């Protein structure tokens, strides 16, 4: 409970709360004492619509009683539940505690089910409709912010349905990606390539790998540079290397956009895509189901 960094706020809130309640009591008493039981009722002097006179009757007793009951309720509430500064209440209730209990209850309910799925190899899970549905829910909860609700991704977030894998599409590779995350490191090349001219040459060569070169006389020079600077990660034929997360540059599928400008920018400035690790947060059982779901998508499951 002690989220305050000084005692001051505890006392500030507690005293203000108690004073407000006392002020309500005082206000009620002030408004209701002093009435004499007389036969004539004072009027307030306000007259509406010609002959409607506003009288000054005291509040009915039952109404007044309701006010006192709400005040008493407030007092008891503050004794039992957290509300008075950092005082945690006699019942020791907290929303965090309630949330944790709820999570525990759900874990106890679905834990055994998830554990059973975790024993099943991913290739078999793909055929299990319930497992697929659970995977779909998990994906909607945890992955759509980046990969999109249809798993088709967006710029800088890979499409998980297209069968083109950066880090490998075998069941265990997908699981490793989700469990431990992936950090891509494509260095910036502008300086090493001798400036914009070098970048343009190599960009044309990269485009030529998928038949899209527009200035063909630059391709040969680009190829030479590619053999020096790029093959270590992207391979001599440019098809990439999943060990480094270096994408295939020949399939005309682009993580960072397909325009010449975007591709040139990737090369000149570098890229550092990061897939955050989910293992610790979700636990292996859920990751296993997610891996099966994604593998299923790439196998044509809908
Ligand atoms: C150290 C390994 C490494 C080297 C060397 C390297 N790359 Fe990369 N490259 C990567 C990685 C990893 C990615 C993916 C970056 C990401 O996902 O954020 C990448 C991405 C790219 C992309 C973007 C692809 C897309 O789908 O948008 C292009 C284009 C590219 N590299 C071209 C080159 C060229 C040209 C060279 C040589 C000048 C080169 N790379 C050298 C590792 C490397
Ligand atoms: C914060 C954004 C973010 C979230 C959330 C996220 N991812 Fe990713 N994911 C990425 C990025 C970025 C990459 C690509 C990394 C790179 O540049 O190589 C990636 C890559 C992947 C890959 C590898 C794709 C390939 O071609 O090899 C898989 C599989 C994947 N994510 C699955 C998931 C799943 C399942 C979840 C939900 C548990 C998830 N991701 C949540 C950003 C995210």
Task: Tell me about this structure.
Helix 8 (196-208) packs across helix 9. 53% of the residues lie in helices and 5% in strands. The longest helix is centred in the N-terminal third of the chain and has 26 residues, at 7-32. The protein is built from 13 helices and four strands. With 302 residues, it is mainly alpha-helical. The chain folds into three domains: 7-33 and 41-92, no CATH class; 97-183 and 276-298, Orthogonal Bundle (Cytochrome Bc1 Complex, Chain D, domain 2); 196-272, Cytochrome Bc1 Complex, Chain D, domain 2 (Orthogonal Bundle), CATH 1.10.760.10. The strands form two sheets. A two-stranded antiparallel sheet has the order 1-2. It has a two-stranded antiparallel ribbon with strand order 3-4. One heme C (HEC) binds next to helix 6, helix 7, strand 4 and helix 13.
Give a topology summary.
Elements: H1 7-32, E1 43-48, E2 52-55, H2 61-80, H3 95-119, H4 122-125, H5 129-142, H6 144-147, H7 171-180, E3 182-183, H8 196-208, H9 219-229, H10 231-234, H11 260-269, E4 274-275, H12 279-282, H13 284-298
Helix pairs in contact: 1-2, 3-13, 5-13, 7-13, 8-9, 8-11
The structure holds heme C (2 copies).
């Amino acid at each position: 409970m002690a989220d305050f960094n000084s005692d001051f706020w505890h006392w500030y809130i507690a005293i203000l709360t108690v004073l407000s309640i006392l002020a309500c009591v005082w206000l009620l008493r002030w408004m209701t004492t002093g009435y004499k039981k007389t036969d004539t009722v004072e009027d307030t002097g306000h007259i509406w619509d010609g002959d409607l006179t506003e009288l000054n009757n005291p509040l009915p007793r039952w109404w007044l009683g309701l006010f006192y009951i709400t005040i008493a309720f407030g007092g008891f509430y503050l004794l039992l539940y957290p509300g008075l500064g950092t005082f945690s209440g006699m019942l020791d209730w907290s929303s965090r505690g309630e949330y944790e209990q709820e999570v525990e209850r759900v874990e106890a309910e679905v834990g055994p089910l998830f554990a059973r799925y975790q024993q099943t190899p991913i290739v078999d899970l793909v055929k299990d409709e319930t497992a697929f549905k659970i995977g779909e829910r998990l994906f909607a909860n945890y992955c759509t912010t980046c990969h999109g609700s249809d798993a088709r991704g967006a710029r800088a977030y890979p499409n998980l349905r297209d069968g083109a894998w950066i880090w490998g599409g075998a069941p265990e590779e997908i699981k490793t990606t989700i469990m431990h995350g992936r950090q891509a490191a494509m260095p910036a090349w502008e300086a090493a390539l001798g400036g914009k001219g070098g970048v343009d040459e190599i960009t044309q060569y990269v485009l030529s790998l998928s038949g899209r070169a527009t200035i063909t006389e630059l391709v040969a020079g680009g190829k030479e540079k590619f053999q020096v600077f790029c093959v270590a990660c992207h391979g001599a034929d440019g098809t990439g290397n999943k060990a480094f997360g270096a994408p295939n540059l020949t399939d005309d599928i682009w993580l960072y956009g397909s325009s010449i400008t975007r591709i040139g920018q990737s090369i000149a400035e570098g890229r550092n895509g990061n897939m955050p690790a989910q293992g610790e947060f979700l636990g292996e059982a859920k990751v296993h189901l997610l891996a099966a779901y994604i593998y299923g998508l790439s196998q044509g499951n809908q």
